């Protein structure tokens, strides 16, 4: 194979980029930007950038060296944040669970510390994403489906120097884009090239703000058109990218698209080739090869319509070298051509993660109390980066639950948050040694009586406080005594009812009376229990409305017998009475009720 001389348009150059307004849903973080500045807009894209203070704990702000701090350089590459402390430091970005996103981190060293550019790892959640390797400038981009309300992107110190970052950018994508991406498998952009062009395209030409770097070669002939091209939806390649292409010089029959060498032998790749023929004079047909493998046979790109060819499976070369070649078939009258390509490596979600519900809850607790500690990234994984004070359960379906949380002596102030109750698998919670006040959430108290060990204050049990009531009057004490000794009261009611019945000189009551008519039984006014006899009571009749008034609409039930419920009441002269009501559902008839009273 002839040597392939490739010249790549570096993003550091101030190349022409079209300008438009901010896209909805973009989060653009200028790392190292002082929090006192109320954001700023990028000179080239007009995208609004904000300080990184709300999204990260720890780190130090820096500006690049004076020789790099020039007006021709994008402002967001003049500041950065370094992380000299801690092994893992993370930015926590807000997402919608199930949404698809592009996240990008840019790194411009700019000799900010006068040393040498470091090397360190970048993680997406708890999974390895990429490695920064002693470069002056580099960017890394991943596409993922959010598994919760937050996604952490982390810099991990591997001993190669102090990690740093210049920008962090989050872009929402349509669900239809990159259908290969799922909640269990993300992809990282290894390369994305715009062929036949001399400028970089991003937002607004690409509404998702992907970087389409230009690439040229002495082995290529550039093709271009100004005609409109019909775009497809699976990858939504920008129209300007599809309006340029490359073919072999001198109408050759073989086009060497690219050659890549990977620094990590475990990488697995997918390749995406983007086509739109801009010549319609004769047949163009070619075979596509990935290394020596015939990937696609007899392909003909459609005229002025976007199309693509991609590898359905993940491909891993034995020696870590990859090249793509297009070879014209014998029938083809035109040489092979291609407009753009993307190369992605796989981000497997092999490392378990914390249950999204628990992660979201822990983030809410962190924000409510301003917890710092090492609360960054996934709370449980990787295990050696687990959050301080957190213990987790075993792994089920690649997720784990938080079962223990120790926040003792953590300078917490305010009330005990209801968010603690959302950690439904919690078995141990220690909030002692803080300045918390207010009531303990009822569900925490309820769970502390069962499986949850809850420590709040060492000198008192806040869930089982005894409420001391003021002393009661003698009359009030008598009433409570009556209500407590329900069986004795029922016996007294029956005796009094019998006396009333025998004292009556009325005709026999018809059994056709309404079944829920209350039968009044006067209860004697209580006396001290020293052997006094029950007081004789007046034989009176009461209307139903009077009974409602005496019993406060039958609010206080003091007993239940075979005929129904017994209610407490008080007459006009403060005499206490009990009203026994025969229930419609009672298995006894009215005659039986009267017979019981008359017996």
UniProtKB/TrEMBL annotation:
Keywords assigned: ATP-binding, Membrane, Nucleotide-binding, Signal, Transmembrane, Transmembrane helix
Does the keyword section mention DNA-binding? Answer: no
Question: Main subcellular localization, coarse class?
Answer: membrane
| One GO CC term on file | plasma membrane
Give the range the annotation lists for the signal sequence: 1-21
Sequence intervals crossing the membrane: 478-501
Q: Domain Malectin-like: where?
A: 29-345
The record gives the membrane topology as: Single-pass membrane protein
User: For binding ATP, which residues are annotated in this chain's numbering?
Assistant: 580
Q: Where in the cell is it found?
A: Cell membrane
Q: Where is this region: Disordered?
A: 508-538
Q: Name one Pfam family in it.
A: LRR_1
Q: Where is the composition biased (Basic and acidic residues)?
A: 510-530
Listed Gene3D superfamilies: Phosphorylase Kinase, domain 1, Ribonuclease Inhibitor
Which GO molecular-function terms appear in the entry?
ATP binding
Provide the protein name.
Malectin-like domain-containing protein
């Amino acid at each position: 194979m002839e040597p392939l001389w490739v010249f790549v348009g570096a993003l550091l150059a101030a190349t022409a980029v079209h300008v438009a307004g901010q896209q909805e849903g973009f989060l653009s973080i200028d790392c190292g930007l002082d929090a006192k500045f109320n954001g700023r807009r990028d000179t080239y894209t007009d995208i609004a950038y904000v300080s990184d203070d709300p999204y990260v704990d720890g780190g130090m702000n820096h500006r690049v060296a004076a020789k790099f701090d020039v007006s021709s350089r994008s402002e967001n590459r003049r500041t950065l944040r370094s992380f000299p402390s801690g092994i893992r430091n993370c930015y926590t970005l807000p997402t919608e669970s199930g949404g698809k996103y592009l996240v990008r981190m840019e790194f411009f060293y700019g000799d900010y510390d006068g040393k040498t550019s470091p090397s360190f790892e970048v993680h997406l959640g708890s999974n390895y994403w990429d490695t920064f390797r002693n470069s002056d400038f580099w960017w890394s981009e991943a596409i993922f489906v959010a598994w919760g309300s937050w996604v952490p992107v982390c810099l991990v110190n591997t001993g190669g120097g102090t990690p740093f970052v210049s920008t962090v950018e989050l872009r929402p994508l349509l669900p239809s884009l990159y259908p290969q991406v799922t909640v269990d498998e993300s992809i990282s952009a290894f390369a994305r090239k715009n062929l036949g062009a001399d400028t970089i395209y991003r937002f607004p030409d690409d509404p998702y703000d992907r970087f389409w770097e230009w690439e040229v070669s002495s082995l290529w002939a550039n093709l271009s058109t100004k005609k409109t091209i019909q775009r497809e939806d699976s990858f939504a390649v920008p129209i300007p990218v599809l309006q340029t292409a490359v073919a072999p010089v001198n109408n050759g029959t073989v086009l060497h698209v690219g050659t890549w060498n990977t620094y990590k032998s475990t990488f697995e790749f997918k390749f995406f080739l983007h086509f739109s023929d801009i010549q319609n004079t004769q047949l163009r047909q070619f075979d596509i090869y990935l290394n020596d493998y015939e990937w696609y046979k007899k392909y003909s790109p459609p005229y002025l319509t976007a199309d693509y060819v991609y590898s359905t499976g993940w491909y891993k070369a034995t020696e870590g070298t990859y090249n793509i070649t297009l070879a014209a078939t014998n029938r083809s009258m035109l040489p092979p051509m291609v407009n753009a390509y993307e190369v992605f490596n796989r981000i497997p979600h092999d490392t378990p993660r914390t249950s999204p519900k628990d992660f979201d809850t822990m983030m809410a607790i962190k924000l409510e109390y301003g917890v710092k500690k090492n609360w960054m990234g996934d709370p449980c994984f990787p295990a050696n980066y687990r959050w301080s004070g957190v213990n987790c359960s075993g792994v089920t379906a690649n997720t784990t639950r938080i079962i223990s949380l120790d926040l003792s002596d953590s300078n917490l102030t305010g009330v005990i948050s209801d968010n603690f109750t959302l950690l439904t698998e919690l078995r141990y919670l220690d909030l002692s040694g803080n300045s918390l006040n207010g009531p303990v959430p009822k569900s925490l108290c309820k769970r502390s009586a069962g499986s949850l060990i809850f420590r709040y204050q060492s000198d008192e049990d806040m869930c089982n406080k005894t409420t001391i009531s003021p002393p009661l009057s003698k009359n009030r004490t008598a009433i409570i005594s009556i209500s407590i000794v329900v069986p004795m009261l029922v016996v007294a009611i029956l005796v009094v009812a019998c006396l009333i019945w025998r004292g009556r000189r009325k005709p026999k009551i018809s059994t056709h009376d309404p079944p829920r008519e209350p039968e009044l039984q006067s209860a004697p006014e209580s006396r001290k229990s020293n052997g006094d006899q029950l007081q004789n009571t007046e034989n009176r009749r009461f209307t139903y409305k009077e009974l409602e008034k005496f019993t406060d609409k039958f609010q206080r039930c003091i007993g239940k017998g075979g005929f129904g419920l017994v209610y407490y009441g008080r007459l006009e002269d403060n005499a206490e009475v009990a009203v026994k009501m025969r229930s419609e559902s009672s298995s006894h008839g009215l005659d039986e009720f009267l017979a019981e009273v008359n017996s």
